[in-house]
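Limitations
The structure tokens in this dataset are predictions for the assembled complex, not deposited experimental models. Users should treat interface geometry with appropriate caution, especially where small molecules or nucleic acid strands are included. An illustrative entry is reproduced here so readers can see what is and is not provided.
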Amino acid sequence: MDFSSFIYNLFSEYGIFTFVAPFLLVFSLLYGSLRKIGLFGKDNPNKEKLYAIISIVIAFYYLYNISDVIFTSNFISFFFFEVLVIFFILMIIALMASISEPYKRDEEFQRYKQSSHNVIVGFITLTVLFAFLYASSLDFNGFGATAQNVIAEILPALIYSGLLPYLIIGGFVIAALYWVYKKEEPPKKRLKKRYFVLAPAEALYELPEHTRSRK
Amino acid sequence: MTNLSQLPQINFTQVNFNQILSQFGFIDFVLPFLLIFSLVFMLLELSNLLKVSPDDPVGRKLSALFSIGFALLSIYNQDLLKWLLSFIPNATIAVIGFSLLVIALALTNKKVPGGLRAFFAFLVVGIILWLAINSLSITGSSSASSSPLISLLSYTINYLMQSGMLELLIIFGFILLVVILVVGGEKKEERGEEKIGGPILLRSR
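Predicted assembly:
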């Protein structure tokens, strides 16, 4: 047995992975959050002790279910991998930004860029969902089993409860009403197809700058 | 005097430096821990999630504790170590490649124009995502390859390639692009004609 396996086994035996690490994670998160939101008032002299007690108790409750701890391990490890991927992308993009000129155009381009920025931020937020999907796919008996079955059970539930036809008919009615009462819109401006490509790229180049400018 | 041939012969077995490092848990334990801890701590400091004020010492300690817990719990998933071992070397090659590109372009003292800049951005995203998905799929059936997202992606790509749909889609996409270009050009001309001012009689000529 090599040294790394020895350490890994030792840590597993002494509960570092299943007890100490998740405890530190949950306790620090809860205690920090409670301190930040100041739920029990700012002038309360015992607030820090109360926050600590509450955090410890909740952390121990969390540790009671080992499958949740394993789920968390899978969840955060995949999330970290995604963060690492984004980190590499931002690093190279920041490198490339130094040798290229930003594409500056009219106000319409700025609007496109802002929308692209929002979409990119949305995609980055989706990393949490991907990590959750990954953790769910590995956890067949515990917490993930419920999550996996949510989509698989929604459709049969809609069909067997008889809700699906009502939903379809309701959708048609809403669509018809919208079509009848729709206001006449002024003719739209011609979309600049070139901006669809250039604006997301510019938004990507601006991401490292946004991160850098944060204090 | 002793002859050199009389000295006891010591058989050195060739050991790779990487093997020594991995034997002592440097690659499987120390490096991932340091990487995860530093990145998570940096992100927490950036977001001020656990701090009451920017100079809050208790908040910084809590961030450090959270990062230690995060790193230890992440290492518990052995698949992560495989992903890191597969992804980071390749991604570093990409970093080196783009750095060389930057160096080469710095020699010419010219800035890359907007269009090419956009191309490079998409190229970077494509390469890094491809490397990431590649490293996820090599780790075996018990890992992310069984994740719904990866299996859906790989299934779709395999289906498209094997059924010949990909070629059809590319051809149709190309035809659509040509049609859009042709039709778009005509509209421009029409607008151009509309913009021509002056008497109607002159315009008809």
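Some entries come with short summary sentences. For this one: Residues 1-64 of chain A form one domain.
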